[in-house]
């Protein structure tokens, strides 16, 4: 193999640049050239390729986001659109591809593999919603951003004897909420997998108010409740002056953490090894602290683990009111 490509797809995540760097360094060491694709699958169909080298790799390892750019391209589901990508890759003698992104990106990688271009996927998303990987690239950095933000909000809530509703990203996966709730001891939390109703949240908030608890942090996953509306309801029910904070895209940015850099770089090396072995249609994940390569189809069909019992256990501990 003489030449491979690398692209980032879907929502950007801290650590994607380390994955790109890992691909470049591992391939270069084997005498393989690496071409970066601008703006994900969109760049693939338009031939937006540029040669990357180790000097470039060194320059990007501490940067947030993805230096290659990312885009969502729903049309990639169509075979005629994918054929354009295959034609561009062939015209540039690019034989195989590493795709860094969330599960939305893997079907494209699988279909390209079926069309003769071996592709390997790396799990890049802050959401930690890829069932076949214990952690995804970007989750640790985003989690640390959430923790830091919650602690800042706690400082001011504690000063003013208030409650805060804080909305956290995750796109249907509540891990950012659950992990942050454990790390910050948020009194009430409602992750996507085990949502609380408005009434349940208000009832609990009232109990804290009655016990003269000084400040209250209520963490909720995005896409379940309107944070501002919920804050109003909590205020009415509990008497706490309640403010809402939507953390938003601050969670996607920033320098990648050590753990994200490590996962991204080592998974990238593994992906290049698999491409050299002539494999495609695989997805690299972390399972019990070991990198594993599974076929994409089985990855996408893996059942979601039931997290409710664990969440309930933490919930009871966090909700304990000291007398
Ligand atoms: O998948 C990453 C993510 O940040 C989700 O947590 C969130 O729901 C979504 O992307 C936001 O997407 P956009 O940046 O397109 O608004």
TrEMBL record:
Q: Which UniProt keywords apply?
A: Allosteric enzyme, ATP-binding, Cytoplasm, Glycolysis, Kinase, Magnesium, Metal-binding, Nucleotide-binding, Transferase
Q: What is its EC number?
A: 2.7.1.11
Instruction: List cofactor names only.
Output: Mg(2+)
Q: Which residues bind ADP?
A: 154
Give TM regions. Answer: none
Q: Does the keyword Kinase apply?
A: yes
GO CC terms: 6-phosphofructokinase complex
Q: Which reaction does it catalyse?
A: beta-D-fructose 6-phosphate + ATP = beta-D-fructose 1,6-bisphosphate + ADP + H(+)
Query: What PROSITE patterns does this protein map onto?
Result: PHOSPHOFRUCTOKINASE
Q: Per UniProt, where does Mg(2+) bind?
A: 103
Report the main location listed first in the record: cytoplasm
Modes of activity regulation: Allosterically activated by ADP and other diphosphonucleosides, and allosterically inhibited by phosphoenolpyruvate.
Domain called Phosphofructokinase: residue spans: 3-273
- Can you cite a GO biological process for this protein? canonical glycolysis
Q: For ATP, which residues are the binding ones?
A: 11, 72-73, 102-105
Q: What does this protein do?
A: Catalyzes the phosphorylation of D-fructose 6-phosphate to fructose 1,6-bisphosphate by ATP, the first committing step of glycolysis.
Quaternary state and partners of this protein? Homotetramer.
**Family affiliation:** Belongs to the phosphofructokinase type A (PFKA) family. ATP-dependent PFK group I subfamily. Prokaryotic clade 'B1' sub-subfamily.
Q: Which HAMAP family match?
A: Phosphofructokinase_I_B1 (MF_00339)
Provide the protein name.
Answer: ATP-dependent 6-phosphofructokinase
**Which lineage ranks, top first, belong to the organism behind this chain?**
Bacteria, Bacillati, Mycoplasmatota, Mollicutes, Entomoplasmatales
């Amino acid at each position: 193999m003489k030449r491979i490509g690398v692209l980032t797809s879907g929502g950007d995540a801290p650590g994607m640049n380390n994955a790109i760097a890992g691909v470049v360094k591992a391939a270069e060491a084997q005498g393989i050239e690496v071409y970066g694709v601008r703006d994900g699958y969109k760049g693939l169909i338009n031939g937006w390729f540029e040669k990357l080298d180790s000097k470039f790799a060194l320059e990007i390892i501490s940067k947030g986001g993805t230096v290659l750019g990312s885009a969502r391209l729903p049309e990639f589901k169509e075979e005629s659109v994918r054929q354009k990508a295959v034609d561009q890759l062939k015209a540039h003698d690019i034989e195989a591809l590493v795709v860094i992104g969330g599960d939305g990106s893997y079907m494209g990688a699988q279909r390209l593999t079926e069309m003769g271009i071996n592709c390997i996927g790396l799990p890049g998303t802050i959401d930690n919603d890829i069932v076949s990987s214990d952690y995804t690239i970007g989750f640790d950095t985003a989690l640390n951003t959430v923790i830091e933000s919650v602690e800042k909000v706690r400082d001011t809530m504690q000063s003013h004897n208030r409650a805060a509703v804080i909305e956290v990203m995750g796109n249907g996966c509540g891990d950012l909420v659950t992990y942050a709730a454990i790390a910050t001891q948020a009194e009430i939390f409602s992750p996507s997998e085990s949502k609380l109703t408005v009434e349940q949240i208000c009832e609990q908030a009232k109990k804290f108010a009655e016990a003269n608890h000084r400040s209250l942090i209520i963490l909720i996953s995005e896409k379940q409740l309107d944070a501002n509306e919920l804050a109003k309801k909590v205020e009415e029910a509990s008497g706490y002056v309640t403010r809402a904070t939507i953390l938003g895209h601050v969670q996607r940015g920033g320098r990648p953490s050590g753990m994200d850099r490590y996962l991204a770089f080592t998974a990238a090396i593994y992906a290049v090894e698999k491409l050299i072995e002539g494999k495609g249609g695989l997805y690299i994940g972390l399972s019990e602290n070991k990198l594993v390569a599974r076929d994409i189809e089985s990855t996408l069909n893996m059942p979601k683990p039931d997290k409710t019992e664990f969440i309930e256990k933490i919930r009871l501990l966090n909700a304990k009111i000291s007398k």
